[in-house]
Amino acid sequence: MKVLIIGAGTGGLALAHLLKQAGVCMAVYERDLAPNTDSGGYRVGISPAGSRALKACIPGELYDLYVATCARSPRYFNMLTEQLGEVLSFDVDDAGPNALDDERNVIRKTLRRVLLRGLEDDVFFGKALQGYSNNADGSVTASFQDGSLATGDVLVGADGTSSAVRRQRLPEARLEDTGIVSLGGKIPMTVETKALLSDKMFKGMSLIMAPMGFGAIIHSLEFADSRSDPGVADRWPDFVEAFDEDSIGWGIWGARQNCPRDPAGLSGEQLRELGLELARDWHPHLRALIRMTEPSTIRDIKVRTSVPLTPWASSNVTLLGDAVHTMTPGRGAGANTALRDAALLGRMLVEGRKPLVEAIHAYEVEMLRYSTEAVQESKKQMDAGDLAHRPVVGRLQLAVMRGVMRIINAMPALKRRAFRQMMRVRGEN
């Protein structure tokens, strides 16, 4: 069996490692021109379930490198008002053993560099997919825009939200605009910027719940321990310089109809001005974070979501990750679901207990089950049609929600239950 994987993102590379370790012939085709083309220096959150799925896919040595390149794990998950008043805060003791202490933050481009390790001869860059064709002998041939071809027994679309594989395989699949606009940036961690965060904010991840449905996220990333660990330098000397500088990241979002300007197409300086305008009545420390951010680091994000699909007739062409279930960042489930896909599909292909198409069908049925829930739950957090974005009803809803969360915050049993529900969407049983 030979597997063609279209896309060298997190899910595609994880699948490639699993197959390679099992002795399955595979190749990865990536539209980027070179390994370092992806300059995304932003954080991706990997849940405990995501880490377990990744561990099931990649060699132990590589998993150790992944852990070493992650930032300090957050100890707290905070829900705050726009004036930084605590509404709900989970810590390791509240959540139970092995919960938040295994939550990891990693820089996207660094994770990609880690996962490319050991696949240097298996990943081909500059390969943008033109389309694919099914052959009489049951094989499938991928055609690339540079005129080259590749033939295999299975083709996996792991090529992200704008998937070329999905367009051909499932032309009925569609994305919808949530009506939410978002922007964010990051700022170097210094004595001055660190002083803008409370202890819980510095040691954890914080979500801001503001009027009119506006929200924000604040997270601090520290890599100092790994950079200073001689063991890391001894084992992976070529990765010492790959560690990102310690930073504080922020993001802010809201319904397009409530924003004075659409962030799409704005310069970094204009995005910063828009962020300050959106946060004009917020705590001075939040405004200071935005004001002190270098404009070149600020980006806008179009928040889209896939429309859940009904089951389709399986074949030797399948999909994983954002290619089949793009979701909003509302629950931080995107990368984790892609890793879960990779571990499940890889296991189905390797075990050989069922004929090939039956194995892929078993994967697709299970993948659709958990990914549909993740897409729907993620959309609940970022949907411009929600009542939270209306002036009067939204304020009432916000007041009720904050009240309920404060009650939960005061009752340990309810807090543990709420945390389990939050983590379930990110892959926890």
Q: With helices defined by DSSP (H or I, 4 residues minimum), what is the helix count? A: 17
Calculate Rg over CA atoms.
Answer: 22 Å
Distance between the termini: 33 Å
Enumerate the spans where pLDDT stays under 50 for 5 or more consecutive residues.
none
Structural class: alpha/beta
Portion in strands: 15-25%
Averaging pLDDT over every residue, what do you get? 92
Kindly state the percentage of residues in helix. 25-40%
Q: What composes the largest sheet?
A: 7 strands, mixed
Give the spatial strand order of the biggest sheet. 5-4-13-14-15-12-16
Number of strands: 17
Large-scale geometry: globular
How would you portray this structure in words?
This protein is of the alpha/beta class and 429 residues long. Helices cover 40% and strands 23% of the residues. It has 17 helices and 17 strands. The chain has helices at residues 10-21, 48-57, 60-69, 92-95, 108-116, 164-169, 191-194, 199-203, 224-228, 230-235, 268-278, 284-291, 322-325, 334-351, 356-381, 391-409, 412-424; strands at 2-6, 25-30, 43-46, 76-81, 86-91, 104-107, 123-125, 129-134, 140-144, 149-152, 154-157, 175-188, 204-209, 215-221, 247-255, 299-306, 317-319. A 7-stranded mixed sheet has the order 5-4-13-14-15-12-16, sandwiched between helices. It has a 5-stranded parallel sheet with strand order 7-2-1-11-17. It has a 3-stranded antiparallel sheet with strand order 8-9-10. Helix 1 packs parallel to helix 14 and helix 3 (60-69) runs antiparallel to helix 5. The protein is globular and about 65 Å long. The two termini are 33 Å apart.
